[in-house]
Each structure stands twice: as C-alpha cells, then as structure tokens.
Design brief:
Layout (H helix, E strand, L loop, with lengths): L13 H7 L3 H10 L5 E2 L3 E2 L4 H14 L2 E6 L2 E6 L1 H7 L3 H11 L7 E2 L6
Antiparallel strand pairs: 1-4, 2-5, 3-4
Helix pairs in contact: 1-3, 2-3
C-alpha cells in the first residue's frame, strides 16, 4: 500500500480548507478529531459507505486538515491542529465553535467495535 501524501504547511490554502469543510460529514470528522487523539479508520462511524468515508478522509488529508499514518494494513488519522494554528491562527477554533453552535456533524462518531 502506498504512503499517503500530505501538503506542506505553506501549500495549505484557505480555499482548500474551506472547501474541505463544506460537507457536514467532514466537519463531523474534524470535530471528532479535535480531541487530539489519533484514530484508526475502523473506529470512525458515519452514515455513509466505507468507500465514501474513505473519500471524506482523503479530502481532509489533501486539504491539509489531517495527517494519515499507515501501520501495516491499518490507517490512522489525526488533526493537524498545530500546523493549522500556525498557518491560519484561530481558524480551527472558530470553525469548531461554529460547528458546535450549529450542531454540524453530530452523525459522526466512534464505532463500538474498533476492528470494524
């Protein structure tokens, strides 16, 4: 399996970030990952097919919001919180606060079975 490519900090654009956050599932994933913990893809639950969830995770990674790490056949994802704070100070906090206030992405959560 080939390693995921991540944009360098200087290549992360505001329009790319905002485009990636234009979907409630992706906002929900960012809200879930905002706790700072690395999550296995199998832990993530959303009301979409696994292939669609994979697409959403790729959009977030390509925009520079997340970092994906592969270990064998498993993939893990984390939010690039420090990078985003450096590139766009306080943007992530504003997005998270607005998403919570408007209850965007509550359908995204953690699977009861992490091996799923």
């Amino acid at each position: 399996m080939k390693q995921a490519q991540h944009p360098d900090l200087g290549d992360i654009s505001l329009t790319g970030i905002m485009g990636a956050l234009s979907d409630p599932i992706r906002v929900g994933l960012v809200r879930l990952l905002a706790d700072g913990r690395e999550r296995g893809w199998g832990e993530l639950r959303a009301p979409v097919a696994k292939s669609t969830l994979s697409h959403h995770l790729r959009v977030l990674r390509d925009a520079g919001l997340t970092r994906t790490r592969q270990e064998g056949t498993r993939c893990y994802v984390t939010l690039r919180r420090a990078d985003l704070q450096e590139r766009f100070p306080d943007l992530l906090q504003a997005v998270l606060a607005a998403a919570e206030a408007d209850d965007v992405g509550p359908q995204v959560g953690l699977s009861a079975d992490p091996a799923a």
